Amino acid sequence: MNERTYLSAPHVTELEEAAVLRAIRSGWVAPLGPEVDAFEQELADYCGREYAVALSSGTAALHLGLLTLGVGPGDIVLTSSMTFAATANSITYTGAEPVFVDCDDTGNIDPDLLEHAFQDLESQGQRVKAVMPVDLLGKIVEHERIDTIAEQYGAVVLSDAAESLGARRNGVPAAAFGVAAAVSFNGNKVMTTSGGGALLTDDESIATHVRYLATQARQPVVHYEHHHIGHNYRMSNVLAALGRAQLSRLDEMPSSGSPPSPTTAPPGTTSGSPLSSSSRPSPVSPATT
After folding, report:
1. Of 176, 115, 171, residue with least CA distance to 148
2. Hey, is 190 helix, strand or coil?
3. Could you give the angle at the alpha carbon of 30 between the alpha carbons of 60 and 280, nearest 5°?
């Protein structure tokens, strides 16, 4: 009984190795670059969105998404009780308060209880600023009801789609729901960039402001000038190259079977190249964002 069933062990092939080598040889090894630009466009197209902003983690995407939507101190954000800590952490980063709503039999937030939470808080004179539903283990939440309920109470929906990239609900891609959605490319997701995430939206102003905050809120001038508190949240060009290769194989990954075996290492090194060794499964938490 010592066998483990892994949530989603990284599946890395020679395609990813070639992509990373291409990025390194290009000289663009720092954050941003042509691979990031291409990855954002390809990711937006895959998810049925107008814009994607590649970031350092799914948590960063949630954090900046909330800030850009105006969530701050004194606000309430309703979210799922069944999730990883990063969901709640991103809310507290803004100074807002997370209020947890229990799940239904699917493990996702229960729309009936969500509506009850709105009613209960409203009766206490408290207004909910946003709803952050979580797609648990690849299952997309019931957005048809959740988004309607949120709209009735004047709240925006930021979808935590960290675990559902590649899934569809009634033909609609996971990250296409809500005013914006966050996805994760952590090592335990269906596709990975080693570490990383992205925010997706159809609103150009949201994408622009998230990019601004993610690059230290630097003004577009030659010298260093900052008018707001920013964050160092952008994805590197090398990791974006890895992401492009993974995204091109995403639809086949769930049925790809076990990760590729590590290659034979040169004498004096640990078995497996840096990429192939990372494809070996390791025990991970089920919902790291």
Report:
1. 115
2. coil
3. 70
Cα–Cα dist 217/147, whole Å? 31
Specify whether the CB–CB gap between 110 and 103 falls below 8 A: yes
Percent of the chain with pLDDT over 70: 87
Mean pLDDT of the chain: 87
Residue 134: phi and psi, rounded to 5, are -115, 125
- Which 3 state secondary structure label does DSSP give 36? helix
Q: Tokens at residue 10, please?
A: 């990284």
CA–CA gap between residue 189 and residue 166 (Å, rounded): 11
Q: How many CB atoms lie within 10 A of CB 204?
A: 10
| pLDDT score, position 24 | 95
- State the pLDDT at residue 250: 92
What fold characterizes domain 14-278? Aspartate Aminotransferase; domain 2 (3.40.640)
Alpha helix segments (H runs only) across the chain: 14-26, 34-47, 58-68, 85-93, 111-123, 143-152, 204-214, 237-248, 274-278
Sequence-separated (6 or more) residues with CB below 8 Å from residue 286: 7, 84, 137, 188
E strand intervals along 102-209: 128-132, 156-160, 168-169, 172-173, 180-184, 197-201
